[in-house]
Amino acid sequence: MKLIILDRDGVINHDSPDFIKSPAEWVPIPGSLEAIARLNQAGYRVIIASNQSGIARELFDMTTLNAIHQKMHNAAQLVGADIDAVFFCPHAAIDNCDCRKPKAGMFEEISKRFKLSLKGVPTVGDSLRDLQAGFISGCLPYLVLTGKGEKTQQTGGLPPGTQVFPDLASMVNAFLKTAAQRPE
What average pLDDT values come out for the chain (184 residues) when binned by 10 residues? Predict the structure, then answer.
């Protein structure tokens, strides 16, 4: 099974410093959903791993989060893309849970659910904590400069081997080109 793990806000959709609190605020980054479709066509299962502390902060509830994700799924399907699963952490940083990135709990759950090691699985994020959680789980880190990505790049401290791309579409183009050149 070929898997790729994506952060949501700032990678697939535009981010907001005030959180994405409603389906109306969820707006895809141009080319991101088509990039997911290309991953699907190449045989990749696409998984989302996203911190959603807006729930703990009571900025939105589970019904609203589900509606946001339904909008994302619907928009993806309109361009022939399929998101296989959405994993999220509903806790605030102060909760010190194991599932909130940069900790690896969400990635461990993905590994268990799909019954596979995450060693070598690509993970794409726009923040250091996205990349750290994936890296300690054995994933290959990819930073996109959308969302918080430019600030993350400037701050530095990226995991070793992190590749940087302007956005998800360019990351997927380069990734699939390289993957096609690798022997199976």
Answer: 97 95 98 98 97 95 97 98 98 95 97 97 97 97 98 96 98 92 67
Per the listing, tokens 């994933």 go with 139
CA separation for the pair 24, 71 (Å, rounded): 9
Chain-centroid distance, C-alpha 94: 22
Q: With b meaning 16 or more CB within 10 Å and e meaning fewer, what string describes 59-70?
A: ebeeebbebbbe
Q: Which amino acid is at 164?
A: V
Is residue 101 within 8 Å of 48, Cβ to Cβ?
A: no
Q: What is the distance of C-alpha 6 from the center of its chain? A: 2
Residues forming the active site? 7, 9
Q: Give 62-121 as a DSSP string.
A: HHHHHHHHHHHHHHHHHTT----EEEEE---GGG--SSSTTSSHHHHHHHHHHTS--TT-
User: With contact defined as beta carbons under 8 Å apart, do 88 and 65 qualify?
Assistant: yes
What helix, strand, coil percent values describe the chain, rounded to 5?
40, 20, 40
